[in-house]
Amino acid sequence: MSYGKDDIEAPRSSGDIDDGGSSSSPFDIARTKDASVQRLKRWRQAALVLNASRRFRYTLDLKKEEEKEQVLRKIRGHVQVIRAAYLFKESAKKLNSELGIAPHPTSTTGEFQIGLELLSSIARDHNTATLQEKGGVEGIASLLETNLEKGIQGDDTDLSRRTKAFGSNNYPRKKGRSFLMFVWDACKDLTLIILMVAAAASLVLGIKSEGIKEGWYDGGSIAFAVILVIVVTAISDYKQSLQFRDLNEEKRNIRLEVIRGGRRVEISIYDIVVGDVIPLNIGDQVPADGILIVGHSLAVDESSMTGESNIVEKNSKNPILISGCKVADGNGLMLVTAVGINTEWGLLMANISEDNGEETPLQVRLNGLATFIGIIGLSVAVIVLVVLLARYFSGHSRNPDGSVQFTAGKTKLSTAIDGAIKIVTVAVTIVVVAVPEGLPLAVTLTLAYSMRKMMADKALVRRLSACETMGSATTICSDKTGTLTMNQMTVVEAIIGGENIDPPHEKSKLKPILCSLLIEGVAQNTNGSVFVPEGSNNVEVSGSPTEKAILHWAVQLGMNFKAARAESSIIHVFPFNSDKKRGGVAVQTTESEIHIHWKGAAEIVLGCCTQYMDVNDHLIEMDEGKMNYFRRAIEDMASRSLRCVAIAYRLYEMEKVPTSEDLAHWSLPEDNLILLAIVGLKDPCRPGVKDAVKLCQKAGVKVKMVTGDNVKTATAIAVECGILNSYSEATEPYVIIEGKDFRAMQDAERLEIVEKISVMGRSSPNDKLLLVQALRRKEHVVAVTGDGTNDAPALHEADIGLAMGIQGTEVAKESSDIIILDDNFASVVKVVRWGRSVYANIQKFIQFQLTVNIAALVINVIAAFSSGDVPLNTVQLLWVNLIMDTLGALALATEPPTDHLMDRDPMGRREPLISNIMWRNLLIQAIYQVSVLLILNFRGISILNLAHKSSDHALKVKDTLIFNAFVLCQVFNEFNARKPDEFNIFKGVTRNYLFMGIVALTVVLQIIIIEFLEKFVKTVKLTWQQWLICVIIGFISWPLAVVGKLIPVPEKQLSNSFRKCTNRVRRCFCRPEKL
User: Fold this and answer.
1) Which tens digits make up the pLDDT trace of 999-1038?
2) 6 catalytic, yes or no?
3) Cis geometry, peptide bond prior to residue 503 (ω within 30 degrees of 0)
4) Where is the composition biased (Basic and acidic residues) (predicted)?
5) Which is more confidently placed, 636 or 414?
6) Is 264 helix (H, G, I), strand (E, B) or coil?
7) Least C-beta-crowded within 10 Å: which of 211, 612, 763, 999?
8) Quick check: is 918 in a domain?
9) Are residues 560 and 506 in the same domain?
């Protein structure tokens, strides 16, 4: 794929891998995701801005970011002070104890036997002494009326009294900006301020010279037009802010599991109450302050609170868990002791305002384009101002009746000032129209619209830039399980005791020892659970899809989960590891035997086995023949797209088990294992995923599968999903590769083969990271999916990180740019469509706005030079600006995506914003509008047969008709802008109610302006014949657009050629300085 390398909006930077820090242009930031503060400051300083508070509202507030860091440091310091005070208090308590002084009794809270302050202080102050005084976690649980195994009751009454006693897991939000603040921001536009001053001066002078009855129209009409612009702008901005506010609430609403009434239930983080028992797994966020009940290799990253990036192990000696921290390793159960504002995290969140501003690459580029156009417009306005003032004060400007407007020594001072003010207001209004202030803001508008609609398509956007970058994606690296498949696993095949058991849950062939060992291994070596409600046979299984499938299978084999867990006690757990592809547990049985159970990727666990147990409970040596039998069985299952999981165990000597101090660092033995079973789990492909993959391929987006599964399983699924067309394709070099092989290559080798890869099996998160890095070095725009904690580096490194909403950990979600709420690949493809829609909508708006810019500027400049007057006055230009800026953006930037967007290749990150097709369209329309309106300006009186009327009235009719025709041209051209490269410009228009509403509103308001507001806008009423002429002039733009689309455009981008010319001119000007 070829990308544009030099265009006027975004000159080439040093590369796509960094943020373009060494680029010559401040507006060339290919990747804002990691852009430096200096880089962000640079483009802000270079932009030509009329209203900084509005223009930069949705960019990152650099000042606020610094303030946020200061607040964080203060609160972290506050934590340290509290802990120091606690140590001092403990020392005093010890001294009082030695002196025989009794401590003060602790208060209680309502129905509970422990007070809010004391309970909150345990975690906040790391008050382990008080924890021990109260009997440890068991004592606190008793005071909170919590069963550590079954959790709280969880009924409405119980939840209500806990919330009343200890508060809710929420914190006070800072109030959003009110509508009046948006009005105030809109008032800060420099040109509008100048116009208001001019309106006030014109009002005073008009009333003084013509009286209040007639003299207020000039100044009043300008003031009214300015107020209208301000109000419409504020309403548009306010609505956007509400959309962003709603989306932010969705981002904060984390779903998690708690244990209530003996079962695991999923709730919102806001519904957690004190006393809840919460399972914690790797990648989870600690949702409240609490105490560890039981943990297995549990380690927590507390950097969000302490500012120090160290991993803290949690055990009985250090059981305090702080809200907002992340689980870095292991798993466990916690008892909630404080929620919401009573936690340090709640205090921190309540004291910092979350700044959701973020510049996007397109936003920065549009600021560059707006600055370029604005400089031209400003130059034109200055020229017009100088020419009109020179003509006015030299006596060359005349009134409609032919009299000279200014005569030195004769014209009154107030009249001269009034004339000069009118000229200044025209020049300033040209600046308002010429500087496309709304162009960068159109990005925010279309992103706000797209993000809201994407929620309905099961995609939650966390970073604005990802929404548009997704439209440029050339490669999607997708997980298999849950994304391409349904994540609904069932055990469909089982080899137990060396025999194929059919059906897989048929236990009549199994002897007691083999069956009991299998059940023990499944029940203890899991982070899932099985709940059987009293008086019901409906089994409720929770956990990951793989865990649930195996637990269901074990239940069918006769497992009583609760009884099986009680028959042995867990000594140590090695949580499932995505690098080792297995997890293990050491348990002590009632006979004081140590059993070590392993479960994981079949071929890896099989490689650790030296024996297997047959169906008669006999241990058989694993000879070469039997090993090959098992390997063939695994390959056969994998070729039928089954996930293969092996279950094995071994005995271990009690005396070799480490002591309690060393137990946490014990590496479970994984050699000399005894194979018990190999199970095949079926996870069917999602319906529609094959069509989604084909749509991506048609759109020029390569889909690569990256999975931890067996290569043969991955290949079978890839063929089923359409990533591979056939099994014969899999035989081509490097199309299928194992993670370890890719990892072993040198960087140069990886770069050579990375584009050939379609499937990577048995990959680790680090392999995924290496794949993303290699693709980005090949200048691909990479989207990558991930759900695990270890996927975080790849998600961050990718241009677009896509975390899974159902299976994804909080760590993965926080590292991502977009969360796929239903874990479905089809939703990923919808995000691609929306990303392309953002870019396409912005281009539509650019084409529409530049047509207006060019036409308005050329008409006014030529008229100013030739006659010393302009046909479009201040109020009319402000109305055109409103149509072009706010209403035009609303109409065109909110077009929904169409399938046509997926018929083209991805848009390169540096391809010109103004394509050759756009240049052709806008130049044809602008030339047509300028030609027709200038003809009317210079020959309108004769063409319209107005010569017999008074010169003043004839001039007003002509100017009114020019203004009306100009506005109607924009209305008709709005339809053309919808489909820049399609002939049918009306396709889907009736489904876009906002577009139709804005067009209708524009037409209605235009009729009101012409027919009823003639004194305000300086127009006269038109006859139906004159209205028909205006409509015909506007209508001609439709067939003209069709004819224009038949004109071929060159492949070489005009924007690039223009850029090279300007570079040569710049070098010519700079050469003398260098000498």
Assistant:
1) 999 999 899 989 888 877 888 899 999 999 999 999 999 9
2) no
3) yes
4) 1-10
5) 636
6) strand
7) 211
8) yes
9) yes
- Please give the DSSP secondary-structure letter assigned to residue 884: I
The pair of structure tokens assigned to 403 is 């009299």
Residues 524 and 661 in one domain: yes
Domain residues for the domain of 50 are 43-106
pLDDT category, 665, cuts 50, 70, 90?
confident
Instruction: Give yes or no for a contact between 966 and 925, defined as CB atoms under 8 angstroms apart.
Output: no
Phi, psi of 474 (to 5 degrees): -105, -20
Residue 413 lies in a domain: yes
- Strand 490-496 with 673-682, pairing: antiparallel
Do residue 697 and residue 811 come from a single domain? Answer: yes
**Six-digit token pair at 1024?**
């139906």
Strands 594-601 and 609-613: unpaired
Sign of torsion, CA 627 630 636 637? negative
Q: Say if CB 208 and CB 414 are below 8 A apart.
A: yes
Give 516's contacts (C-beta < 8 A, 6+ positions apart). Answer: none
- Which ranges constitute the DSSP H helices of 567-688? 602-607, 624-639, 660-663
CA dihedral 44, 49, 55, 56 (to 10 degrees): 20
Distances (CA, A) of 432 to 182, 934, 1071: 19, 22, 35
Task: Name the burial class of residue 1016, with classes exposed (0-12), middle (13-18) and buried (19+) by CB atoms within 10 angstroms of its CB.
Answer: middle
Task: Collect all residues with Cβ–Cβ distance below 8 Å to 262 and sequence separation of at least 6.
Answer: 149, 150, 151, 531
Helix H or strand E encompassing 311: strand 311-313
Range of weakest confidence among 70-79, 427-436, 704-713, 786-795: 70-79
Please say whether the dihedral angle defined by the alpha carbons of residues 794, 800, 805 and 810, taken in this order, is positive or negative.
positive
My answer on whether 891 and 1035 are in the same domain is: yes
State pLDDT tens for residues 4-48: 333 323 333 333 444 444 445 665 555 555 566 666 666 556 565
Per-residue CA distances from 477 to 257, 364, 484, 819, 1040 (Å): 29, 27, 11, 15, 44
Cross-strand partners of 703: 476
Top pLDDT among 247 and 568 is at 568
Scan for tokens 């939703």, then name that residue: 827
Q: Measured between alpha carbons, how far is 236 from 148 in angstroms, rounded to an integer?
A: 52
Q: Could you say which DSSP state residue 285 is in?
A: B
Instruction: Decide: 475 and 784 in contact? Cβ < 8 Å.
Output: no
| pLDDT tens, residue by residue, 780-832 | 989 999 887 778 888 888 889 999 888 888 888 888 889 998 888 989 999 99
Angle of helix 916-943 versus helix 825-867 axis, rounded to 10: 40
Given the residues 19, 218, 479, 791, select the one marked as catalytic: 479
Give a three-class secondary structure readout of 745-763: CCHHHHHHHCCCCCEEECC
- Give the pLDDT confidence score for residue 351 in this predicted structure: 61
**In a domain? residue 273:** no
Decide if pLDDT at 496 tops 80: yes
Dihedral, 823, 824, 825, 831 alpha carbons, nearest 10: -80
Cα distance between residue 745 and residue 753, in whole Å: 10
Identify whether residues 784 and 909 lie together within a single domain: no
